[in-house]
Structure formats: C-alpha cells, structure tokens
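Q&A log
Question type: sequence-to-structure
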Amino acid sequence: MTQAEQDLLTLNHRLLESIASADWKTYQELCDPSLTCFEPEARGQLVQGLAFHHFYFRLGAAAGAQATTMASPHVRLMGDVAVVSYVRLNQRQLPDGTAVTKAFEETRVWHKIGGKWKHVHFHRSPLPG
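Response status: OK
Response body:
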C-alpha cells in the first residue's frame, strides 16, 4: 500500500469517527462545501451541500458504546482524485445492553484541492440484516 493510500484510509476513518461522535467541526474540515451524496436518509435524491448532514449532527451522537470498522477497504488513486470503497460496520450498544451491528456498502470520493484531500461525494447503501 502506498503512503497516499494509507493517508486516505486514515482520513476516511477520521471522517467516519466524526460522524459517529457528531463532531461537526471535523466533518466540515474534511468535506468540501459542495459535497454530494446518495444515502438512505435522502430517499433516492441527490443531496448537495452540507446542510442536510448538519441536521443529523445537531441530533448528537448515539448513546452507549459504539465502534466503526471499514471492512475490506480498497483505494483507487487517479491523480488528484481517489475512490475509497469498503463495507462499513457500525457496532452499537442499545440502552438495554444488547449489541447490534449494521452494515453499509460505501464509496467515498476524495479530491486533492490546494494540496489537501477533501471529501467530495459518497454513496451509501444498507446491507440486509
């Protein structure tokens, strides 16, 4: 794995941790303001910008223990653009103490802008179960 690929995986993990902990400041730092996405919450619509995501950050982090894992990550570098694909495993402890895991197929696009990688697009789909 190249240093650039490792850097992108580190940045992507940092992004996922900011989502899990509702850390809006870090999320904004890592994302381009023109971020686009397709995700289940958007109900089939292409979302543009950060306002849609800010709503969920304002709700705060989920209570209880939680962990996020990128399973089988793959990085494809194309000059100043990179695609990071993986299955995201979200583990959470419910208030009654039960542990649950949800899985999502994710593809995240990063663009090197002004010498820094910025998250510019993602597609997230839930896996059954």
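Response note: The beta strands are 31-38, 47-48, 66-78, 81-93, 99-113, 116-126.
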